Amino acid sequence: MQSFIDELTDKLKKPLPGAEAQYQMAHVARRTYVPAPHDARLAGVLVLFYPVGNAWNLVFIERTSGNPNDRHSGQISFPGGQYDPNDGTLEQTALREAHEEIGVPPETVTLAGALTELYIPVSNFLVHPVVGFTGSKPDFVPQADEVAAILESPFDRFLQPDTVKMTDIRVMQNVTLRNVPYFDVSGKVIWGATAMILGELRSLFL
């Protein structure tokens, strides 16, 4: 078990696959690189590994869909949110948000490194994915007003040849994206920025 964490930490210290790996999991309309503007809002998300039996799992949240101003409502994502100056660092942002959204105490998380930042034009967020792990499975407690459900998946599932699927996704009343790459977790569709982050993560081990 520890050997995987050692390997992961080592890989995160080396040059990352970056945008090339991220955009393999993006819709064709999203594959043109868009640099983050100077006024982009900063965000940190936590890519959290934790042991279940002999496997390392990842945790995701299904966001509530009640906020009409949230461009990502109802989507599956990593726990995380907007940077607060009181956080000091984006690593602390990711840890704080994971504590608030799924109840993981920051002191139980060991940081292993970070993946490539990713700009999300639709919400003007520059997302910094922070990778960490815990020594045992956390007692997840969803934040009622932001988290509709907590989803868990063995990381190995994302390394299988048939893990990437395609579907059509309705993003607005009269707008449907065709042939969007996604990951399936417990029947839920992981697409967009979260799938792009996962795409870079899985490429480290392929």
Helical coverage, percent range = 10-25%
Biggest sheet details: 8 strands, mixed
What is the 3D shape? Answer: globular
How many β strands by DSSP? Answer: 11
Specify the structural class: alpha+beta
Strand content: 35-45%
Query: Would you identify the regions where 5 or more consecutive residues have pLDDT less than 50?
Result: none
Structural features, described:
By secondary structure, the protein is an alpha+beta fold. The protein is built from four helices and eleven strands. Strands 1, 2, 3, 4, 5, 6, 7 and 8 form an eight-stranded mixed β-sheet that branches. The longest helix is centred in the middle third of the chain and has 13 residues, at 90-102. It starts with a helix and ends with a helix. The model has no long low-confidence stretch (mean pLDDT 93).
Architecture blueprint of SSEs:
Layout: H1 2-13, H2 19-22, E1 41-52, E2 55-63, E3 76-77, E4 80-82, H3 90-102, E5 110-114, E6 118-120, E7 125-133, E8 147-154, E9 164-172, E10 175-185, E11 188-190, H4 192-203
Parallel strand pairs: 1-7
Antiparallel strand pairs: 1-2, 1-4, 2-3, 2-8, 5-7, 6-7, 9-10, 10-11
Features:
206 residues; alpha+beta; 8-stranded mixed β-sheet; 4 helices; globular
